[in-house]
Prior knowledge:
Layout: H1 3-11, H2 15-23, E1 27-29, E2 32-33, E3 46-48, E4 51-54, E5 61-66, E6 93-95, E7 103-109, H3 112-118, E8 127-133, H4 139-147, E9 150-151, E10 155-156, E11 161-166, E12 169-174, H5 181-187, E13 193-201, E14 204-205, E15 214-216
Parallel strand pairs: 7-13
Antiparallel strand pairs: 1-2, 1-3, 3-4, 5-7, 5-15, 6-7, 8-12, 8-13, 9-10, 11-12, 13-14
Amino acid sequence: xxxxxxxxxxxxxxxxxxxxxxxxxxxxxxxxxxxxxxxxxxxxxxxxxxxxxxxxxxxxxxxxxxxxxxxxxxxxxxxxxxxxxxxxxxxxxxxxxxxxxxxxxxxxxxxxxxxxxxxxxxxxxxxxxxxxxxxxxxxxxxxxxxxxxxxxxxxxxxxxxxxxxxxxxxxxxxxxxxxxxxxxxxxxxxxxxxxxxxxxxxxxxxxxxxxxxxxxxxxxxx
Length: 222
C-alpha cells in the first residue's frame, strides 16, 4: 500500500494529515526520508520523528527433513505435528506437504509469497522423490508412471521423469502435487508404496539432513 494509506491505517489520521507528515520530512523509511510515491513493504523499517513506527519483517527460509510419522501441520490440537519439532519463533509454516507416512524435504518460511509461488501456483516446480514399493516394478510399469496414469477418478497425471534404482525402488520427478499422488500412481500398478522420501523441491536439495534436522537456506537457494 502507499505510504500515505499506511499512515492513515496505522495512526488513525486523515489522508491530508498523512500527507503533511510526509511532506514535513518527519517520516523515514529504511533510514531515508520518505516520499509520497513510496509503496510499503513488510520488510520496510519506518520511523516517525525518529521513533519506530514499524519494525521490518525479516524473512527466513529453512530446509527441513520431515520424519516419517509426523503430521504436516502446525495445529497444536493434532498430535505429532511439526510445531513439536520446529524451534522457530514467529509465524513460520511449511511449503510442500508430505503425508504422515512420508518423509523428506519441506521448506519452512515466514514468507507467504513463497508459499503461493510454489504450493498454489500453476508454475512448473519440480519435486523429486525416492520411492520404494512392495513388489518388483517392471520397465513397462515405469514407462506408465512416466507417461501419466489416471488417478482420483478422472485426473491424468502430468508426464514425469522416472529412473530405476533397483527392482523395487525408483526415482520420480513430478511437476504437480495432487493428493497422495505417488501412492495413488503406484496403486494403479497393483503395487504399494512402502517408503517415500522427497529429495528436492526445485533446486533445493535434502542433501545430508537427517530426519528432524534443518538448515538455513543460503542466498543462492532462495
